[in-house]
Amino acid sequence: MLRDIQKINKEETIQTKEKLNKQKNKKRKRLRIAQLAPLAKRVPPKLYGGIERCVYYLTEELVRRGHSVTLFASNESLTSAKLVSNGPELNKTGSPDSYSKSRYNWLLNQVRQNASNFDIIHDHFDFHLSELHQIFLENLNKSSLIITVHGLMSWAPSLSYEFNDFPLISISFDQRHHHGGHPNFIANIYHGIPSNLYKFVKNSKAGEDKYLAFLGRISPSKRPDMAIEIAVKANIRLKIAASTFVESSNEYQNKINKMVEQNKDKIEFVGEINDKQKNEFLGNALALIFPINWAEPFGMVIIESMACGTPVIARSIGSVPEVIDEGISGLLFKTIDQGVLAVNAANKLNRSLVRQTFEKRFTVEKMVDNYEDVYYKSLKKIKEKKIK
């Protein structure tokens, strides 16, 4: 009886929240929003590319909600918004830095010249453009500007100090610890993905077909070597879906190749995969293994795995403890031996609860609700300043 009452109360609470959100959205005016994406890859990326993927989901949901959105990105981008571009993704051109700078310079000038046509300019360039970005920010009316920091601003310390009064959004609270407390973080918004992007898989592969999944880059920061060591010690198969990254030296690549060859009865390298392939790859796995070696601000693959119902076994570093509810959506470890213990306990986690955690915390709807709140609050502040 008590459970029935609690269930009814929960359903009524959800319905009330949905009703209030609809009423709130009806009262709010539709905004003119510019989204600025890096030019290295198209939006969305065909395979690897966390920032571009996030910008895509955000842009599509904003358009769906009736906002007028202009996306500044490479010309191969797929979008429901108006696209402004001046060439293909830079990763394909193999051109010198001077060409890349000229492309970015043109795009930034377009944004600056048309700034009055937008209520909000949302910058995802991540301070990686150095002097070009600096000039752009200096000459832009910052009142309508929002900057999401996707990486670590320790990569560009001079910018993080010089522009500490710009409104910044972090993608995890841990990310802020690496910025010296100087930037003006006005909100923390976790990434989200469409709830229908991946189907929930109730049961993983069992018996001899049971495996761990590694999805990421072949690079020291992602530690596929640790994933291999844990899988071998736990006596479980490991499937590696990965791309080689520029930070991955030939020496490290050779190390991974050698480890795979020495354990080919347990380790399988499947290369890069797309979203459709991810669903099967992640959904059928006992768990995703995420043994990163750096303070990653937000691991998109974690919530992709959770969307499939697959728990995550992750190294406790960076934002990982924020994103994973330990004992519910995954297990944390620090050493290889702890990782082995986590693998052996992974089948005790309830995959339905893993999916529910994703739906509660990491959908695109949740992410865009939060971004809309930031947009409207920023515009309200501008209006109040004008009145004064």
UniProtKB/TrEMBL annotation:
<keyword id="KW-0808">Transferase</keyword>
<dbReference type="Pfam" id="PF13439">
    <property type="entry name" value="Glyco_transf_4"/>
</dbReference>
<dbReference type="GO" id="GO:0016757">
    <property type="term" value="F:glycosyltransferase activity"/>
</dbReference>
<dbReference type="InterPro" id="IPR001296">
    <property type="entry name" value="Glyco_trans_1"/>
</dbReference>
<keyword id="KW-0175">Coiled coil</keyword>
<dbReference type="InterPro" id="IPR028098">
    <property type="entry name" value="Glyco_trans_4-like_N"/>
</dbReference>
<dbReference type="Pfam" id="PF00534">
    <property type="entry name" value="Glycos_transf_1"/>
</dbReference>
<keyword id="KW-0328">Glycosyltransferase</keyword>
<feature type="coiled-coil region">
    <location>
        <begin position="10"/>
        <end position="37"/>
    </location>
</feature>
<protein>
    <submittedName>
        <fullName>Glycos_transf_1 domain-containing protein</fullName>
    </submittedName>
</protein>
<feature type="domain" description="Glycosyl transferase family 1">
    <location>
        <begin position="201"/>
        <end position="340"/>
    </location>
</feature>
<feature type="domain" description="Glycosyltransferase subfamily 4-like N-terminal">
    <location>
        <begin position="48"/>
        <end position="157"/>
    </location>
</feature>
